[in-house]
Specification:
It is built from 14 helices and 18 strands. By secondary structure, the protein is an alpha+beta fold. The strands form 5 sheets. It has a 6-stranded mixed β-sheet with strand order 6-16-15-14-17-18, with helices on both faces. The longest helix has 33 residues. The relative contact order is 0.16. The structure holds alpha-D-glucopyranose. Its EC number is 2.7.1.-. This is Phosphotransferase.
Length: 531
C-alpha cells in the first residue's frame, strides 16, 4: 500500500486495478488534498515527452513517443505524412462493395482521408444575388436561415436555431430529416409567408449544409460515407441524404428546391472568399474538425474519367478528421486518447479529430482526472460519482478554466463545486488549468499541422494566404488562434507568419446560399453536372 498521506493511499490488485483508500474518523473535518508538489510532479508527467503507452515505455522510436507536448520536429514529421495522405486521397479512386450487414451496395473508402470532390467549381464572383434558404445540420444544432445575397460581399441573414437531442442523434434517419423539414416549415411560415416574400406557386432554392462525409458525383446528391461526431442515426449510411431530405420536404409540401448539398467547410471556404478574396483554405474547429480548399481539377487524378475541363478548379472537402485512422502511425496518442477512441461509437475512426475537436477535449481531461482519483491523488474522501460519467466534462469548461482571471481561480472552484460537487485546493486548480492548457495547446498545434500540409501541398507559403476558420473551439477557446499561428512558425520558421487564420464568414448559412446561387447560375448556363 502506497501511503500518500495519513489515512489515505492506494493499493494495486493482482488484476492490475488500482483502488483508492481513505479512512476518516469522527473528529477529522478537513478533507485530505494533494500537496502542491504532488500536483506539480503529475503535471510534469503529462508535459514530458515520455508519457507513453505502457507497451512503448522503453521504445526509442520517435513515432512511439506520445505526450501532450508536440515538438517542432515532431510537427514537421506529421506535416510530411499528412501531405502524402492528402495526395493519396486525391489519387486513389473509391470502391463500391456490397455491405456485409445490409447487403446494399455501399462505398468502401480505401483512403484514410477521402478528399471529397464537391462539385463546387471555383470561387464566387462576388456578384451573386437573390434570396436563398439554408438548412444546416451540424454536430450540435439544426439551423435554418434565410439569406439575402446582395453582391459585392454583402448579405443579410435571418435565422433560427434548434438544439438536437441525444435521442435524435441515434434515432432513424428519415425521422431526422422529417424533423429538419418540420423546422423549415415553421421558419417559412413565420418569416416568408408572413412577409409575403414568396408568391403562390414559387419555390425558393435551398442549400443543405450536411456536415458529415458524403460521396458526391453531383452538387445536389451525396451518399453518406459514415456518421462522425458521435452520431449513430440508423438507415442513413450508404444512402443519398439529399434524396432522403427531398422526401421529407415533399411530405411537408414545402415550396423549396434543394439545389446544393454542401459540407460546412466548403460553405465556409466560399463565404469567406466572398468577403475576403485572399482566403484559400477554410477550417472548422467545433464539435468536429475538418478543412476544405480549392484544387485544380487536373490535380485530382481520381476524377479524370469524368471528363471535366482540366483548367477548372473544384473545392475539395478533405475530411481530414480521419487522418491516421485505424493505423495510428503518425499522431502522438496518450493512453487517454486511446480510451476515448476505444469507448467511442466508432473506434479507430476520426483519429485526428479525436485529438482536436470540441467533442473530445473535455473527455480527455476528465479521463486524466479520473485516473488520479483512482490512484488516490485527487478528491480523497469526497464523492466523485458526478465526475465518473463519460462526457460530463464539457470542453467549454477548459475554455473557462484557461481564461479564469482570478488569483484564487474562482471560476474553477465554481465549475468543480457546482457541476461535480467536489472541493478543490488552489494547487489542484492550478494543476487543472495547466492540464487544460496542455490539451488545448496540443489541439491547436495539431490543427497547425493540418493547415501546413495543405499550404505546403498547394505552394501557398511564399505568397501567403488567409485561412477562414470557424467553430466553437476557434471562436471561444482563449488563445486557440495564437497557438495555431505559433505552431505554423514552429513548422515553417518565420515564413509561417505568411499564413494567417481569421474568424470566417458564416459558411453554413451565407456560404450555402452563395453556393446555391452559383449552382443556379451554372444551371441557367446549361452546366448542371460539370464544365
Ligand atoms: C466532422 C465531419 C465533417 C465536418 C466537421 C466539422 O469532421 O465529418 O464533415 O466538416 O466535422 O463540422
Amino acid at each position: 500500500m502506497v501511503l500518500s498521506r495519513r489515512g489515505s493511499g492506494s493499493i494495486t490488485l493482482a488484476s492490475g486495478q488500482t483502488l483508492a483508500i481513505h479512512t476518516r474518523t469522527h473528529d477529522e473535518e478537513d478533507l485530505p488534498h494533494a500537496t502542491k508538489k504532488t500536483m506539480a510532479d503529475h503535471l510534469r508527467k503529462y508535459e514530458s515527452r515520455c508519457v507513453v503507452h505502457l507497451q512503448f515505455r522503453v521504445s526509442t522510436n520517435p513515432k512511439a513517443r506520445s505526450s501532450f507536448t508536440l515538438t517542432p520536429q515532431r510537427m514537421r514529421m506529421i506535416v510530411e505524412a499528412f501531405k502524402d495522405t492528402l495526395e493519396l486521397g486525391l489519387a486513389k479512386p473509391d470502391q463500391v462493395v456490397l455491405c456485409h450487414v445490409s447487403l446494399r451496395p455501399c462505398r468502401f473508402i480505401t483512403n484514410a482521408v477521402p478528399m471529397i470532390p464537391t462539385f463546387v467549381f471555383g470561387f464566387p464572383t462576388g456578384q451573386e444575388q437573390g434570396d436563398y434558404l439554408a438548412v444546416d445540420l451540424g454536430g450540435t444544432n439544426l439551423r435554418v436561415c434565410l439569406v439575402y445575397v446582395q453582391g459585392e460581399g454583402k448579405f443579410e441573414i435571418t435565422q433560427t436555431k434548434y438544439r438536437l437531442t441525444e435521442e435524435q442523434k441515434q434515432d432513424d434517419g428519415q425521422k431526422l430529416f422529417d424533423f429538419c423539414a418540420e423546422c423549415l416549415k415553421t421558419f417559412i411560415d413565420n418569416n416568408l409567408e408572413a412577409d409575403h416574400r414568396l408568391n403562390p406557386g414559387e419555390t425558393l432554392p435551398l442549400g443543405f449544409t450536411f456536415s458529415y462525409p458524403c460521396f458526391q458525383t453531383k452538387i445536389d446528391h451525396g451518399e453518406l460515407i459514415r456518421w462522425t461526431k458521435g452520431f449513430g442515426v440508423t438507415n442513413t449510411e450508404g444512402r443519398d441524404v439529399a434524396e432522403m431530405f427531398r422526401k421529407s420536404l415533399a411530405k411537408y409540401e414545402l415550396p423549396v428546391t434543394l439545389t446544393a448539398l454542401i459540407n460546412d467547410t466548403t460553405g465556409t471556404l466560399i463565404a469567406s472568399h466572398y468577403v475576403n478574396p485572399k482566403t484559400k483554405i477554410a477550417c472548422i474547429f467545433g464539435t468536429g474538425c475538418n478543412a476544405a480548399y480549392m484544387e485544380h481539377v487536373v490535380d485530382i487524378p481520381k476524377i479524370k474519367n469524368l471528363g471535366i475541363d482540366d483548367t477548372a478548379d473544384m473545392a475539395i472537402n478533405c475530411e481530414w478528421g480521419a487522418f491516421d485512422s485505424f493505423d495510428h502511425e503518425h499522431l502522438p496518442r496518450t493512453k487517454y486518447d486511446t480510451i476515448v477512441d476505444e469507448t467511442s461509437n466508432k473506434p479507430g475512426e476520426q483519429a485526428f479529430e479525436k485529438l482536436i475537436s470540441g467533442r473530445y477535449l473535455g473527455e480527455i481531461l476528465r479521463l486524466v482526472i479520473c485516473e488520479l482519483i483512482d490512484e488516490g491523488v485527487l478528491f480523497l474522501g469526497q464523492n466523485t460519482y458526478k465526475l465518473e460519467n463519460p462526457y460530463v466534462f464539457d470542453t467549454a469548461f477548459l475554455s473557462l478554466m484557461e481564461s479564469d482571471p482570478t488569483d484564487e481561480l474562482l471560476m474553477i472552484i465554481g465549475i468543480f463545486s457546482h457541476f461535480f460537487a467536489v472541493e478543490t485546493t488552489l494547487a489542484e486548480r492550478q494543476f487543472f488549468r495547466a492540464l487544460a492548457k496542455l490539451i488545448g495547446r496540443r489541439a491547436a498545434r495539431l490543427s497547425a499541422c493540418g493547415i501546413a500540409a495543405i499550404v505546403s501541398k498547394m505552394g501557398y507559403l511564399e505568397e501567403g494566404c488567409a485561412v477562414g476558420a470557424d467553430g466553437s473551439l476557434y471562436n471561444k477557446y482563449p488563445g486557440f488562434a495564437d497557438r495555431i499561428h505559433e505552431g505554423l512558425v514552429d513548422i515553417f520558421g518565420e515564413k509561417g507568419r505568411n499564413i494567417v487564420t481569421y474568424h470566417a464568414e458564416d459558411g453554413s448559412g451565407v456560404g450555402s446560399a452563395i453556393i446555391a446561387a452559383m449552382t443556379k447560375a451554372r444551371r441557367n448556363a446549361g452546366l448542371y453536372v460539370h464544365l
